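Wed. Picked up where I left off yesterday with Septum formation-related domain-containing protein. The coffee machine is broken again, so keeping this brief.
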Amino acid sequence: MITRPRLSLAAVAVATSVFLTACSGGSEEQDPAHPVFDATLQQQPRQALLATQAAGTASFRQTLTFTSEHGDSVQTSEGRLDFDGSRAAGSQAWKIADGLPDEAKDALLGTRLGEGRSPARSDLAIDPGTIRLRSGEAAYWLRYDESAPFGSGDSIDALRGTEAAFGGTLLEIVSGAQEVRQSAADGGGRTYRARLTAFNTLRMFSKDLRDELISSIDPGVTERRVTLDLSVDADGRISRAEADFSALLGRKDSALRSVTGLRAVLTVSGFGASPPVMPPLSGRTVSAKDTVRPIGEVEPGACVDLNTGTRVLDMVVAVSCEQPHDARVFAHAAFGADHPGRKAARQQAGENCRQAYRSASESWTREAVKDDMYWYTWPTEAGWNRGGKPVASCYVVSR
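Structure written out below (tokens, as returned):
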């Protein structure tokens, strides 16, 4: 049971006087300034980011690796970017180390109602104003517009970046580079090593993951710095970025306290080639605004899918019972105005759903994948009277 802007070269106009009878200097034209390498050293990482964006399009692949004694748990994000159009198409996928504590798995994958965690893979298509997400093996895209449903919050917003349409990559934090050092690289490129403050670095992560890393970050404090390495090609475009985030770990009360290392590696290639291939608008798409809601707002007898991409436990997708679905709600049980305490609230929810199960329509409850198995939720004290009357929601998992 659930209990828990682009770069441009400046044109300089030179006026010549009609009285001029001689000129000085050689006959060769002076080479134009390099848009990245002729900038001040401290500005070159930022200029490299602008040169990357000026390419118009690029492919990317990033791994975010959480290391523990149980092995590496890795999130892989990859796809194609259109900087001009603020579009991206790609995916995120997790590979979790065997033996990683359950609370760490929940923090990385996110929990969902029913038995199990959020899917390890999601496909993403990001346009200006719209994020489409397909979780796991879902048969449809879930479309989040700018007016996202209540509760979907930061976890959906974090999927969109500010420096590239696809969020959560190292491109988001390059502009914060400090204490920059450089060296020459083969092919006319450069490599850089820089530092980042923890405050700037945390922008890469969604709120729920930030909450598991160090807290109370003061923008003026420079302790716990992160190392950033950049490789830049002869045109000044970023081809590789690597950052060691291990300094962000160490909270004793964190679900990630067993994680001892955190590292990101980003590669960028395919500059100026084809734009991302977006899923066709004719494909099956469901509006999150119309369908994503707290389970407590779903009518008894109605059906839901449990994967919303929001990483908010009680949010579900309302779907037709005529199509495959994850669960069916069979009852809601109201609580009183005052919170009775965590233990009592759980016990009351369990008893109310037990009684409701006995009297519920058999056509609803027989969908359960396990005989006589039902699930229930209840609000926490913090959410007791937030968004309406506090209720326990009772449901069976149907697949």
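Quick read: The first strand starts at residue 57 and ends at 68.
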